[in-house]
Amino acid sequence: MYAKVIVDVPAKQTNRAFDYSVPEALRDWVAVGSRVSVPFGPRKLQGFVVELDDRSVMDPAKVKPIAEILDLSPPLTPDLVQLAHWISQTYLCHEITALQAMIPGALKAKYERHVRVKDDSMGQERPMSGLSGNAVGQHSFLLPAQQEIIRYVAAKGSVEIEALLQRFNSEGKLIKELMAEGYLQEVQMVKDRMTAKKALTVFPPDDPEQLRAWAEQLPSRSAKQKEVLELLAERPVPVKLTDLLNELSISAGTVKSLVEKGWLELREVEVLRDPYSHRSFQRTVPLSLMPEQEQVFQRISRPVMDREHRVFLLHGVTGSGKTEVYLQSIQTCLDQGREAIVLVPEISLTPQMVERFKGRFGDQVAVMHSRLSHGERYDEWRKIMQKQVRVVIGARSAIFAPFTQIGLIIIDEEHESSYKQEESPKYHARDVAIARASQHDAVVVLGSATPSLESMYGTLPEYKAEAAAREDSSQARFRSEQLDLFGASTEAGHPAADNNSQARLTGRRVPFELLTMHNRVEGRPLPRVHIIDMREELRQGNRSMFSRDLYKAIEDRLHKKEQTVLLLNRRGYSTFVMCRTCGYVAECPHCDISLTYHQSSRAIRCHYCGYAERELTVCPSCSSEHIRHFGTGTQRVEEELTKLFPGIRVIRMDVDTTTEKGSHEKWLTLFRNRQADLLLGTQMVAKGLDFPHVTLVGAIAADTVLNLPDFRAAERTFQLLTQVAGRAGRHELPGEVYVQTYAPEHYSIISASRHDYQSFMEKEMTLRKFHEYPPFHRLILITLSHEQVPLLMRTAELLASRIKELAKELQPMPVEVLGPVASPISRIKDRYRFQCMIKYRGEASISRLVHQAVAGFEELERQQKLTISVDVDPQVLM
DNA sequence: AGCACGCCGACT
DNA sequence: GTCGGCGTGCTC
């Protein structure tokens, strides 16, 4: 038997499967998805089995055996292995990178290089194995220091090379000699970073009657020991030592003496850490649904029951009760004996959200988010592996939960940009979810109050027509796209092993079905939104950051003891620092960006690289003292608030106040308990929060996002305002929203103020189409960065022309290569940045072409420390 | 990624 | 004449 293995080296030349033989002893263990240790050149590497085969497809003389299997059961399912291949093709990354992203960090291989004394079975000349003083004595040609090293290593069995060099740090050369001459031998080990947590566990004997007999034997002064025996006789199951001690309030000594008598056994047993074990969750029952919810629920649950792959876009206004629909749909899925994945943006993975799911499904739920420790995350993942849970709620990467029977995947707040991973593999969880669902014939629900244009596009007749027209050719073409990107392998990918699994990724997309919920639960009205023209305020002589109306509103809430949420999408104190005499602006010496003043630390700092220096009192350029802080950040608003409203209790939430673990939660709890009057923050306060006493929401500068050089600026502004407006008046008290802006006539702001998604979407669609932007056209952004501009420019030009050249062969397909030009932020951390934009219409093979072009530069990247990053814009893939 | 093999400059 | 620079290629 032979296995195809992807090895743990993310490089162009190793981005293919290597063949290994499966030793007899491992035959029952090695499966598609197994993590193995394999010899690779002179060393050992971790790898993933992606295919099993009865005959070798390559030169049998070269094939080596798999050295070791690293897990008891494969950490990846066959469908995940196939999905990894799809991801590597779609998002242009090495296959190992995609595979690696699917398992918890705890299982990432750690390579340890150890040395040990060579046990030379035939080498009588060097009988070092049973190292006696005598044996060392025979080698009088070894220096005393060398003999000492050998003795040290022999005593320890094996020593990590780094540790040995540290211990004998002046003798590095001698160690090398010993290794070269074969006295010491290097051994490679592939190890996990994490081991399962163990707990001492007490094991009673098989026969509980025996315990009673022993209990009788005990003298009366051993009452505690007797208690233990009686308890175990009553309940003859293994019990954690700590639990036992707590339960009977006894000390470990009591148990120890029983163990010493040989009556009980104490062993270490793996346990799972449960980050939520200390919390009890109030069980909830399904609520009765509103007619609209009921209708949507029916639409979703029917295909779940019929095991049909469908994608629904659920557009539900804030407060329309989407979560209850999710919960009941999941129940339907579980009733089918299948599993469900729920993705939520990291930021809204708050205890409230977890509570709702735990409350409904109890310990059937695993939770995955970045605030968990390495070990906790590993344990949650193992719960899935061991089939202890059937629902996963988590951020982006939870889409890779190793379930085998997925029936439903829900993506809440589907428009959130955090579903796109910034590092390689730069996947978008929405697209991966649809791909994974198609493997399982599962249903996808994309939920949002402000669906992304991409997802909306999927519901349009235009998309359906395009998809239908493409159907035949795309099927055929996709199959050919499964070929190895680099042309290195002649075999067609690895069609993921077992052909009887339903897994088959065609890459073809079904049209999305739009579901709408217009009404809020219990018919609460949406809050009234006032747009405030800040230019008018200025004309009226108000130069403060608060309009008169917003000021009055805040004052009013303070009187009424109601709460306020203020949004400002900018942290720090001011945006930039300028000398009014000469116009000097403080800039980061490492990045092409101005420095932001931070009041608390009296420093100016760079939000890109963290560079900081002391605040300016004198202009470094002209020595003038007329330094002024321009623009407004959260810190400044906080300062202003305490000045204007003496005694006001403000909570400020931004990256600066929430880096500490658990601080996010802490602030929100404080606010919920009404220990503050006003919550001020960046976009993190806009999402998913639900506080009954908030009746006022203010956006201090609604157009900060609008002015960014991004074709999605209007969409993001609309989303942000809609989200933040949804924070007000969610309960009995009616809400009110103030939006301050310098662009009051902008359609994104007007539509948001009218809660009118439809008209915003239509307008934006028209504009996107006209300007040839997504979702009508697709974009791939290639960013190159390097310390030196000339090399950077040369390479960028070369890459652009290479892409053009390759694109020519695809004529008459319209592919535009824009650039190269300097990136909007032309330097970050001392590295200059250039970019190239590829624009084209629905043709998935372009990404492959770009990858091909980029792959040609990998050598250069390695040698010159040049980086090329490729971002496939989130898109509706067909 | 590592590591070996291989072809051209300053040195015992 | 050699030691050593890192350019090119391979790893089942």
Automatic annotation (TrEMBL):
Keywords: ATP-binding, DNA replication, DNA-binding, Helicase, Hydrolase, Isomerase, Metal-binding, Nucleotide-binding, Primosome, Zinc. InterPro entries: DEAD/DEAH_box_helicase_dom (IPR011545), Helicase_ATP-bd (IPR014001), Helicase_C-like (IPR001650), P-loop_NTPase (IPR027417), PriA (IPR005259), PriA_3primeBD (IPR041222), PriA_3primeBD_sf (IPR042115), PriA_C (IPR041236). GO terms for biological process: DNA recombination; DNA replication initiation; DNA replication, synthesis of primer; double-strand break repair. GO terms for cellular component: primosome complex. It catalyses: Couples ATP hydrolysis with the unwinding of duplex DNA by translocating in the 3'-5' direction; ATP + H2O = ADP + phosphate + H(+). Residues 611-768 form the Helicase C-terminal domain. Zn(2+) 1 binds at C579, C582, C619, C622. Its EC number is 5.6.2.4. This is Replication restart protein PriA. It comes from Paenibacillus rigui.
